[in-house]
Write a structure and sequence with these properties.
Layout: E1 18-22, E2 36-43, E3 46-51, H1 61-67, E4 81-83, E5 87-97, E6 106-109, E7 112-115, H2 118-125, E8 133-142, H3 146-152, E9 156-160, H4 163-168, H5 171-181, H6 186-190
């Protein structure tokens, strides 16, 4: 129903720094099933975000450091890796607190930033990275007005982001916790027919 989303981009409704919580009715890949996506940018050029509750099992942080110019001479503290989205799944991106800021770091909102350089991976490896971080491979992207159309079609619920959910909540609980933040009855929401 993209054709129903018309007009130019209105920055008052930008979703940067918000959560997208996938609805049970969301069609498509398993990548987005019961997912929580943190929106890193949303503008007239589209939207980009990172899934924050899909931990990778077959690829480790150590595996990542061996593929980058990070030299390890001691055992690393293992860091969880996440599937940030279906695009460029060989690209590492770190969502983190702003106690760590370097060249190439992009401020997002509410004390959170994104870095995608090998320097941050090296700093994390040697215990000099940000206090709180989520390391993801890949990212999620929507073309202009695509995300708005998906929200209109009840594929996503927009809620305020919460650092506690991102960094300190068990992955298997993040989707429900983010859903609870909306204070909307899910049964009532998904049973609506049409858009009035």
């Amino acid at each position: 129903m993209t054709e129903k989303i018309t007009g130019g981009f209105d920055s008052r409704f930008a979703l940067t720094g918000k959560f997208l919580v996938s609805m049970p009715t969301l069609d498509g890949s398993d990548c987005f099933k019961r997912s929580v996506v943190y929106i890193c940018s949303h503008s007239s050029n589209g939207a980009m975000g990172l899934i924050v509750n899909k931990r990778m099992d077959k690829f480790t942080f150590s595996d990542l450091t061996f593929q980058l110019p990070v030299k390890n001479y001691e055992a690393l503290n293992e860091v969880n890796l996440y599937t940030g989205g279906p695009l460029e799944q060989v690209r590492g991106m770190v969502l983190h607190t702003t106690d760590y800021m370097r060249d190439g770091t992009v401020m997002v909102a509410d004390g959170l930033a994104v870095s995608s350089t090998s320097e941050i991976i090296s700093d994390i490896a040697f215990g000099q990275g940000p206090k709180e971080k989520l390391v993801a491979l890949g990212y999620s992207f929507w073309q202009p007005r695509q995300l708005e159309a998906e929200i209109y079609d009840n594929n996503w619920l927009v809620v305020n982001a919460d650092k506690d959910i991102i960094f300190r909540t068990p992955d298997e609980e993040k989707w429900q916790r983010a859903l609870d933040e909306s204070r909307i009855s899910l049964d009532r929401f998904v049973n609506e027919t049409g858009h009035g």
